[in-house]
Each structure stands twice: as structure tokens, then as C-alpha cells.
Design a protein that fits this description.
This protein is of the alpha/beta class and 325 residues long. Helix content is 41%, strand content 13%. The protein is built from 13 helices and eleven strands. A seven-stranded parallel β-sheet has the order 3-4-2-5-6-1-7. The structure holds adenosine monophosphate.
Length: 325
Amino acid sequence: MAFKALGLSEKVLKGVHAAGYTVPTPIQLRAIPLILSGRDVIGSAQTGTGKTAAFALPILSKLGEHGPLPRVLILEPTRELAAQVETAFRDYARFTNLNIAVVYGGVGYGRQMDSLRAGADIIVATPGRLLDHLERGTVRLDKVEFLVLDEADRMLDMGFLPDVRRILDRCPRQRHTALFSATIPPQIETLIEWAMHNPETIEIGARQTPAETVKHVIYPVSDSQKSDLLLQLLERVNYNSVLIFCRTKHGADRVAGLLKRHIHAVAVLHSNRTQREREQALHGFREGRFEVLVATDIAARGLDIAEVSHVINYDVPQHPEDYIH
Ligand code: AMP
């Protein structure tokens, strides 16, 4: 089935075409008509399933033209995801006159204020900074028609649920809500009951195993052997881009230091780094300037990075879904 048959607006279809998409993914096939028809949707979908477009395309189609501000709020757990989703929205909306703003912490207020003042139809935000703006009165949410809670279980893990509730309290009750989550733990269940209206659940893409194209290998070694093993692996394996996950920020710094001493081009991504450092790390890794990115689970969800040849879980991931991601 082609995108044309799904009922998206002409301008959004042009954006989809320009993005080079020809066939909708399964989650897009299910979610787009539901969101267009005004239903609340719960999606258990992961990165790589096309879930961003699954909510962005119907929302952009329903918005149509520049109108009362802002009408769309997308909440994301991390700054990196917020930036990625904003870029996707800009891409799909390029033939519309809709304005998009991104709001996250760790950077100055200036540019965010400017883009909010310019009038954003769509705000993509992390909860903490959005609350700051709400308290300063630089954002109002009383015209919000579409709310998306992306990576809801990750927001729960990061302790954002109270912030999310406070933000939701500032949105009109009459609105459309979509929620995406790899798992639905009881607190998310409660949030769903409280925040959503008769939602339809889509479970496409809820993989319990890694993709078939991924080969995986486990090395049972003692803790003291891990660093030697890592160095040997990187020496012997022919890799392009390697993503290494560590459980703690301290651990990530330690592994990065070790690799740097062995002349690898390494970047580090975790929440104790400044936003500028985080951006440089991710950007440099995407561009191939760094061959290795060492990260905590801040990067374990949702980031879309092409050409990664190897993923190494230096520590066993805390949640099985993180391993699959
Ligand atoms: P997501 O799961 O939203 O992070 O998307 C994963 C990747 O798939 C992104 O690079 C998208 O640009 C891409 N993508 C999304 N939908 C489609 C589609 N229908 N056809 C081809 N690529 C797509």
C-alpha cells in the first residue's frame, strides 16, 4: 500500500516523497489512519520501525496551516531524541508553513525563546526545560490539540513522570494523545488511564529479539578481564562505527579513557557532559569523525544512527528492551 492511500495531506505527501519514503512501515500503516480519524493511540514500537513518521505525518496533515499556537506538543526523554524528532518534523513539514521549535535543557534560553516568540505550531521538548518555560510564562499550552508522549517508559525510568503530569495539567483535556513505549509498566498504565481517551493499542514492531540481520555474541569473562577483551576485540574486528554501552557515567568515562590511550577516535555521551559536548559527540560519531561512541543508556533508546557496524554492551543492560534497541 502506498502513502497516497492513507489520507495524508498533499503537502505532507510531498514531504514524504522528498524524504525518499515509498512504502509505509507496518506501524505507519496502522497508526496513520487511526490518528487521522482522531483516535488516541498507544504504540509499542521501537527505533527503526518508523514510529516518528507514524505520528508526525498524520499530525502535520491534521494541522494543515499555521494557526493558534502551539497546537502540538511532543515530549521526549532526552535532548538528543528531541533534536532528532525536531529534525524529522522539519523534514516532513518542509512544504507547509508550519513552525517547529525544540526546547531542552543544558543550553541557553536565548535561541529557544526566539523560536518560541516567532510562533511555533509544534513544540518538541524534554519535560524539565519545558516546565521552566511554563513557569516563566514563555510557553502556554492551552491551545494544544495533539500531545505525543514518546518513549514513555524511558521518561518513567528517568524520573520524569511527575513533570509529565504537571505538563499535562496545563494542556486542555479535550485533545488527542498518542503514547509510545517499549513496555507498559503499571505506572504507565495509570498514566494512560489518566491521560488518554479510549485509546487503541498497536503492537507492531514489539520485537522480543534483535533484528535478524544482527549477529550477536557473548563473552563470559570476569570483570577484571573486560578492558583487555575490549581492546582485543577492537583490534581484531573490522569495524566502521562502534557503539559501546556502559551502565554508569563513570564507567563510560573510564572505558573512553582506556580507548583514547590506545589511539581510538572516541567520543563520550552521558548526562554529566555539557550539552555542547553531547552534541559534538553525537554529531562527530554520525559523521564518522569518531570511530567509537561510549555511552550510558541515555543513548540506548530511539537514536537513529546509520552505519553502526558493532554494538558492545560493556555491562549487561539493565532492561532487556535496551539490549534489543
Ligand atoms: P524511527 O523509527 O522513527 O526512528 O525511524 C527510523 C528510520 O527509518 C529513520 O531514518 C527514518 O527516516 C526511516 N523511515 C521512516 N519511515 C520510513 C519509510 N516509510 N520508508 C523508509 N524509511 C523510513
